[in-house]
Design brief:
The protein is mainly α and 261 residues long. Helices cover 81% and strands 0% of the residues.
Length: 261
């Protein structure tokens, strides 16, 4: 059980620093070790990310920080709520299509590898890409919806795709995008959890493991927030790029491993 705590803590530290939630690390790493079923890992990952983002966003607001741009962040969060519910239903539907649940794991791993790969390419070349300044509430809601669907379906909370969207569509710098990403993740994961409970689709899990992962998520949020305040945008970008490279490698391996089972 110690491994669950270690993975959730260090993933949440990185998640709080970069604004990727931590689920994009927790999900593929736990899949790699095969410590639980695909559904259980997705659920535990989502709960961990929710606890970390709840602490980080709450602490930021109590401290009077103004990195979250409410004019765009709130419509994005509203869209993410709806997307989180739809993404959870999509996961349940895909899971029901296959008798072998490992196939679902392979599909998730493949999607994560593609999304993370695209994110890495964008991050490497973002200085050369002209960004936009979207201010339409409707467009913000639709973008949030798409983010919510992807994060909930993949069980990653929000992940790197949030940052790319915030970079490109809203011209945010790295640390501002990280704060807004965690704000979006908080609402999408809360909606996903409520949907799971209401539809009675909570997978089997051990309460001590959930407790350790939530503790790791909050602890990681505390430490990650401290590091984020001391790091500049370039340092956060470098950490983000390194994480993406590692996640792509793990996702490709997981895709192969699940396909072979």
């Amino acid at each position: 059980m110690l491994l669950f705590l270690i993975v959730s803590f260090f993933a949440s530290v990185a998640g709080a620093i970069c604004g990727i939630g931590g689920g994009v690390i927790i999900k593929p790493v736990l899949d790699l070790f095969g410590l639980a079923s695909v559904s259980t890992i997705s659920f535990l990952s989502g709960c961990t990310v929710l606890s970390m983002s709840c602490y980080s966003v709450g602490k930021s607001m109590l401290a009077g920080e103004r990195r979250v741009e409410m004019k765009t962040g709130t419509p994005l969060a509203v869209g993410a709520v709806a997307g989180g519910i739809v993404g959870k239903e999509l996961f349940s539907y895909i899971r029901g299509l296959f008798a072998n649940q490992n196939t679902v794991g392979a599909v998730q791993a493949a999607c994560l590898a593609v999304i993370t790969g695209g994110t890495l390419i964008y991050t490497l070349y973002k200085a050369k890409i002209k960004t936009r300044h979207v201010d339409s509430v409707l467009v913000c809601v639709l973008i949030g919806f798409a983010l919510g669907v992807m994060s909930s379906f993949l069980g990653i909370g929000g992940g790197p795709i949030n940052l790319v969207v915030l970079f490109y569509f809203f011209s945010m710098d790295t640390k501002t995008a990280a704060a807004n990403s965690l704000y979006i993740i908080l609402f999408s994961q809360l909606a996903s959890l409520i949907s799971t409970i209401v539809t009675a689709s909570v997978p089997e899990f051990r309460w001590p493991v959930l407790g350790l992962m939530v503790a790791g998520g909050i602890g990681g949020g505390i430490v990650g927030r401290m590091f984020n305040r001391r790091m500049d945008n370039k340092a956060v970008d470098k950490l983000f790029i390194c994480l993406m490279a590692v996640i792509i490698g793990i996702s490709i391996y997981n895709m192969w491993h699940y396909s072979a089972l």
